[in-house]
DNA sequence: AATAATTAATCAATCGATTAATTATTTTTG
DNA sequence: CAAAAATAATTAATCGATTGATTAATTATT
């Protein structure tokens, strides 16, 4: 059945995503992936055409999902700070509930190998980043944000802070004193704390009229 | 001669560091590294005992350098905000002038493979992170910083922002409109802009008494 | 009966590492 | 100081292991 086949493909994608995140692209062998997914190694080639095809399929799955969310936010008519805070919440939710994929993304971005693949990934992430920049720039332009704020750097701070918590999870755990890799800890402790921090910091920097040097 | 030998070893380490950063640990083969360094493949094993030994040597080189800097900052007696800003500058200088190593570090931190190696790396980075946290916590304690500031998250924002600029260089370039991988651009544009941004943002969040919800 | 799905076995290529042989450099010795 | 002995450095060739991929045969489904 087509339905069963799709379920099996999704299952493989799920397992593969986890293994790629934990072991890296080269580190996760097709033998390991197929074994973990409980399928024959040849099925990976049968379904996805090969290891690269499997890897790409993982990205394509997420690209489709993310595109919809972006378009929704684009069309809302709310204040700049509300938009930005909505953005902060959205990305925190998305990134925190999908740590494995985030790890893959940022690791892939830091390589210069597999350039065709890289370009696809970067064009995806750049959609997100440029959208956030647009919101901030708009806020600066319409006077609701500090005039000499650096939109590019703020984008870096937003995504950088979140990816640091996720990618350097073992570091973060050591820093905070609890297990940042534990999903329930992430949901109940890390995520709200992260959201609160970024919102407060961005608000202090962007809105309150203070004289920094 | 011992001196010549050390020079050759350093040369190999330099080349290997670049290749590991560009291609990843698995992606950079010993054949590739030895060829790029202009030495026979067997020399890597002769000098470093193998690929892992070579990889470790790169870290040990940097560990030694960083330890000294950390101890110096520890012993200075200046205000909390001065210490923090000095920290921001120091890490910006270090990370920006050594992008290759930073890429390796953060990629390694996001893996769960090679655990003995990972622990060494994490313990090194945690030294830096905990030092920054200590400075911020001290500032909160002695009343110079905002009382409800989140020290852990600030550390994540500091290192996260910087590593985002470096690791997601292609993204940053697309965002900012100039080549973030170009050393002279980094030195004259990116580095000062990054320093300024973090200092201003941290100052707004930590010092100016504002009422964020 | 025909097509799709699945398996086990095998392919060539590449990996890191090692070997044995050769060359270069010290060190010892006369 | 030079010849010889000893050690260090370097090379080319090869090792077994693992990689992703493919094949041909088998089983399941339509």
Automatic annotation (TrEMBL), chains A, B:
The keyword DNA-binding applies. InterPro entries: DNA-bd_HTH_TetR-type_CS, Homeodomain-like_sf, HTH-type_TetR-like_transc_reg, HTH_TetR, NicS_C, Tet_transcr_reg_TetR-rel_C_sf. It comes from the Bacteria. The keyword Metal-binding does not apply. SUPFAM superfamilies: Homeodomain-like, Tetracyclin repressor-like, C-terminal domain. Residues 29-48 bind DNA. Residues 6-66 form the HTH tetR-type domain. Keywords: DNA-binding. This is TetR/AcrR family transcriptional regulator. It comes from Pedobacter segetis.
